[in-house]
Amino acid sequence: MSNTNYIGKALSRVDGPAKVTGAAKYAAEFNVPGLVYGYVVSSPVAKGKITKIDAAEVLALPGVLQVFSHENVPMLALLDRSYKDDVAPGGSPFRPLHDAEIKFSQQPVALVVADTFELARYAASVLKIEYETVAHETDLETKRGEGFEPGTGKTGFVPPPPPRGNPDKEFENAVHRIDQEYVHGTQHHNPMEMFGTTAEYLDGGKLNVYDKTQGALNSQRYIRQIFGLSKDDARVISKYTGGGFGSGLRPQYQLFMAVLAALELKKSVRVSLTRQQMFSFGHRPHTLQTVKLGTNADGSLAALHHHALHETSRFEDYTENVVNWSGMLYQCDNVKLGYQLAKLDVYTPQDMRAPGAATGLFALEVAMDEMAYAAGLDPLEFRLRNYADRDQNLDKPFSSKKLRECYHEGAAKFGWEERNPAPRSMRQGNMLVGYGMATGVWDASQQKAGAKVSLSADGKLTVQSATNEIGTGTYTIMTQVAAEYLGLPLEAVDFQLGDTDFPAAPVQGGSWTAASVGTAVKNACEALGEKLLKLAQQMEGSPLKDAKFEDVEFVNGQLRLRLDPGQAVVVRDIVQASGETKVEADATAMPNLIKQKQYSLHAHNAVFVEVQIDEELGTLHVTRVVNAVAAGRIMNPKTARSQVLGSVVWGLSMALMEETVMDHQFGRYVNHNYAEYHIPVCADIHDIDVLFVEEEDDIVNPLGVKGIGEVGMLGVAAAITNAVYHATGKRIRELPIMIDKLL
Ligand code: MOS
């Protein structure tokens, strides 16, 4: 695939105009006729039960239609049906309005439905609910030593491998030793689009459900199970998603509420959450980690220990891969990894961009920096000395790994060799200057996915798959794939997604959409191509009569012989000659497990950052970042670069700003709003440079793409933390690094 017309080209988003003109509609923007509005009432207490709900006063307000709570939720939602979703972890998912029990602060306890949103919100504010509280536990610090190992986790969870070598003895014998704890608090996803569902009630009682989600099919399966609906009864539509980052991988409670109210009231209902309520479900878990490293005199790693303990809810065992990366990122024969959970009275944590790796690699990569200083080595040189050419966790070679090139190309672009290794040695005016670096690694995965293509007689190609677009560029790169394989102009291709009537695809997450849906689109285009060749051969005087599929190619709207391009048929003419209005094909793509299971499949990156810190004020700016990424084929350098830019901004945010603070007296997050939960603004962002290192890989999938949505974030928080040490001599091991830690 060296000569491509579209794949690998820096094209602008095909959905860009719709987004900037407002033509793109989000779940809570479908103003269907007869719409009424639900407002969710959230529990002010963290644990206990509801003893009384007095809805009489609220129901007497003109325009209030109903108050739903556990007292009157209809049987249809209470039957012992499964509330599982595709990415549910072990345990039993939270069931909204199911009973009187309060399991976490901000738990939804009632839904007020009214003619207007404002009335519903007002009525919710005066609804009288009484609670009986019992003591809650929300502080992970009190759970040290009480963690447990999760049995089974959600899809993709891999328990840490058993210890290898003699990690305890080799640590004791090591020449240099590091033994430290690394901590970060809870963080909440804050996509621009808040969660909302518009359930449109159609004649005959069917529903069109416009949902904010990362997986329309996941939402559909969820409500089908709960309400006993057929696939036909409830179509879920999600054409645009205003950011997900993992928060939309699982159906959220507003979906349940909107569908419940629509079915009960036989009306179209919208339920949208407020920004404050966005802090009432999944989050990146507060995590305590210890890393112990031992090195030999030559700087080679003699022993590595990494242990993590993080929170989960009482009702589910949320899992993520926090420590496993430490067993495969560097060469080390003596490794011990541990991973434990502790139950608290909080909502279940949820995948948040690069779940597990973002936090696990923060700990590992700061520890690696500490060890580089202890061993008297440059942090980059230390990593190169311990470079892993094989995945020791799996005892398998990598399908491809251009991390060394990321280090070299990133360091050169950044000017790493100008770094004076001594802390506090570099200055610019009254600013302390620090250079820091770190490494990242993420899975290159492919999931089963389907796609359907349809070519009409006017030469337009429609491509459909039930995947989602969370802002990553899916519309664009799938259009590129289809245009590439069928030799059509981009404008002739209409890629459609986010509809449960389309061929099945997994939730958009895990950085697997380009690989999974991309391969499905390619396969569907090739299936269509074979059909078109057969039809072309039936045309009178066809120049392709005896051609095999391998002998032909689709270029510039023509189907032609590779070796004799003059022998060609116009693709549009094939459809017209067929006598049909369109020619269709569909395909499902599966990972080639026989090939893949012999290898470790991963994307890598290396991050270099410069910070400048005002010595007197403690103010910190990340003035330069170079992020060098090896993620296989880059389908579109423009959308891919945007992904990595966003990742770097998030890494900076994780390092310096984000933390949801729990007031343990009330078991409640106190900064659940944009005023007090800080994320960067433009003034916080300076120079960010993204490099893509050439990496070919025909094992990961036929497109050679590894995915770019998550890897770019990795290493950023650690590189900043390491640069802070270099600038100031202060070793910080707890995020976020706010001004108090620098003074
Ligand atoms: Mo990602 S955390 O799989 O949306």
Automatic annotation (TrEMBL):
Coiled coil: none annotated. Residues 143-167 are annotated as: Disordered. GO terms for molecular function: iron ion binding; oxidoreductase activity. Residues 21-135 form the Aldehyde oxidase/xanthine dehydrogenase a/b hammerhead domain. SMART domains: Ald_Xan_dh_C (SM01008). This is Xanthine dehydrogenase YagR molybdenum-binding subunit.
